[in-house]
Specification:
The complex is a heterodimer of chains A (82) and B (468). Chain A is of the alpha+beta class and 82 residues long. Chain A is built from two helices and five strands; from the N terminus they run E-E-H-E-H-E-E. Chains A and B meet through helix 1 and helix 2 of A and helix 4 and helix 8 of B.
């Protein structure tokens, strides 16, 4: 699961196709590589992860900036590392 | 873990797409059931029936029962041979729909995908009842398919019922090889469980469904299913299999009974007991063990809670053993508390309602409350591995860490027979206990103890109240 740096300086982690518990684990791993204040967008298509990923990152002290459906049944969760 | 991931990758499967236990299914409440209601409305004048909601399908038994499997592509022009359907002349069928995720998010899209196939079947003139259909999600658009097992019953027998169920999982344990026999046996036990919970345990037949690309692996897995049937004296039904990029394992299972099924919601009354046949929550040690192999922090956190990793692995193995053990002895006990067909149903002697706890875990109480329109008070949540379930929910590894596969049964029993039922399940090797009571009728509600909050990330069910 590779984190990609975008031209705007933010990071992208595409977790489409993965199911629980992997989105929570790989999001956590990706955030550990970022510096405080940097922004990561996680792309998921597994509906239960819409609940578990934002809840887990908040519990770890990060900020969930936005959860948006980017195409039918695909969501982007934008997180700022705390 | 990387070695196992590599083994999976070599045959074109990503372990990260595989759900442990009950497969990634299309949401029943928001998608499947509304779509079925819509399809029933649109196909109102056709000669077949699509039940609105169903676990196992139950029809009259016959001396000859045939299973005819057909696989159709969805989302393309229908390639269905109507003469084939006419020659099968089925009374009922069970189906697995594998749908591209874009169609799985709303009932409108789901209906749009399924309607052509129902319409096409209707053109055959079949007088057909559609039994259980379950739906799983694929990330590959070209893999939207419908697998129909058409059931033909010939030479009807009075006083005997045929119960039919189908179910599939992605994987039972992603930390062992795909070809391990426990993957297949666990999946088949999970499918059989919906028959066993009804007390159905005679003339059992298994038509396995193995979706995988690698033909030698498929043959090996079919071999496990065949051996499982031989050992337990079930009939193995040889049916076509097919290629699938997304692994799934399961099958259609059939069995007969001379007893009435315990599906009498209207007979559930205040004062009755809520019994579980054993503690539940089989999936949490599998999920936490997998997570500990991927994330060292999970491993150290689990150890810091007094669970050494070898102990967690032992728990995982215990869970797999439970999942891979058919609950046929439990089915025989349930059957002892059911009246024969044609006899009166006396709730002081018989079990009016039994349900499989498997996938829903604690949410089964809400389902039962809704089905019976009663309020239920649950006094304890008996879990197999409570400390592991607590960790799984606390760390958001599972939204519902009480979920299982091939799970315990929930029974509603009259207080006159509860003690006997509990004793009989204990004698059969289970660990039954009374965990609640039906309190009132007229309002679907569940009251649960506060401890339940430790095992789910968010209770999120409007009819469940949590308190002391």
């Amino acid at each position: 699961m590779n984190v990609r740096r975008l031209p705007n300086g933010e990071y992208l982690l595409d977790l489409r196709g993965t199911i629980c518990p992997y989105p929570v684990l790989y999001t956590k791993r990706a955030l550990e590589k970022l510096k405080t204040g940097e922004v990561l967008s996680v792309i998921i298509d597994n509906p239960p992860s819409l609940e578990t990923v934002p809840a887990s990152v908040k519990a770890s002290g990060h900020d969930v900036l936005e959860v948006r459906e980017v195409e039918p049944a695909v969501w982007a969760i934008k997180i700022r590392r705390g | 873990m990387e070695d196992v991931f590599k083994e999976y990758r070599e045959i074109g499967i990503s372990s990260l797409e595989l759900a442990c236990g009950c497969a990634v299914k299309v949401d029943l409440e928001t998608v499947v059931y509304p779509a079925i209601r819509e399809l029933r409305r649109r196909l109102l004048n056709k000669r077949f029936d699509i039940p609105s909601k169903r676990d196992a399908e139950i029809v009259g038994a016959g001396r000859k029962v045939e299973v005819h499997r057909r696989v159709y592509k969805l989302g393309f022009e229908m390639d269905m041979d109507l003469n084939d359907i006419r020659s099968i002349n089925p009374q009922t069928c069970v189906a697995v729909f594998q749908v591209f995720q874009r169609y799985a998010g709303s009932y409108e899209k789901f209906t749009e995908l399924l309607e052509p196939i129902y319409k096409r079947i209707s053109e055959s003139g079949a007088n057909l009842r559609f039994g259980k259909g379950h739906s799983i999600v694929t990330t590959a658009p070209e893999e939207s398919i419908a697998i129909f097992d058409f059931i033909t019953v010939r030479e009807p027998i009075a006083g005997k019922l045929l119960a039919i169920n189908n179910d599939t999982v992605n994987i039972i344990d992603p930390t062992i090889g795909i070809g391990d026999k426990r993957q297949v046996i666990g999946a088949l036990c999970n499918a059989l469980n919906d028959l066993f919970v009804l007390g159905v345990h005679k003339e059992l037949r298994v038509a396995p469904l193995i979706g995988v690309l690698d033909s030698s692996l498929r043959d090996k897995m079919i071999g496990h299913a065949r051996n499982f049937c031989r050992e337990l004296e079930f009939e193995f039904v040889d049916v076509p299999q097919f290629n699938s990029r997304r692994l799934f394992i399961g099958g259609t299972v059939l069995g007969t009974t001379e007893k009435q099924p315990p599906t009498r919601e209207e007979l559930v009354k205040p004062g009755m007991d809520v019994v579980v046949t054993r503690p539940f929550g089989e999936l949490s040690p599998i999920t936490v063990y997998v997570s500990s192999l991927i994330d060292g922090e999970v491993a150290s956190e689990v150890e810091s809670r007094g669970i050494p990793l070898n102990e967690l692995k032992r728990m995982k193995e215990r869970a797999i053993e439970i999942i891979s053990s058919p609950n046929i002895r439990a089915a025989k006990v349930v059957s002892e508390y059911l009246p024969k067909i044609g006899e009166g149903f006396n709730v002081e002697e018989h079990i009016p309602l039994a349900s499989d706890i498997s996938g829903p875990g604690i949410y089964i109480f809400a389902e039962i409350a809704e089905r019976t329109n009663t309020s239920i008070e649950v006094s304890e949540v008996p879990l197999l591995f409570p400390e592991v379930s607590e960790y799984a929910a606390e760390r958001f590894l599972m939204a519902n860490a009480t979920a299982g596969t091939n799970g315990a049964f929930l029974l509603i029993t009259h207080e006159n027979i509860t003690e006997d039922v509990v004793k009989d399940f204990s004698r059969a090797g289970y660990s039954p206990r009374v965990i609640g009571k039906v309190r009132e009728t007229g309002l679907a509600k569940v009251r649960m103890p506060k401890e339940v909050l430790k095992y789910v990330t968010n209770i999120a069910n409007p009819i469940i109240e949590v308190g002391d």
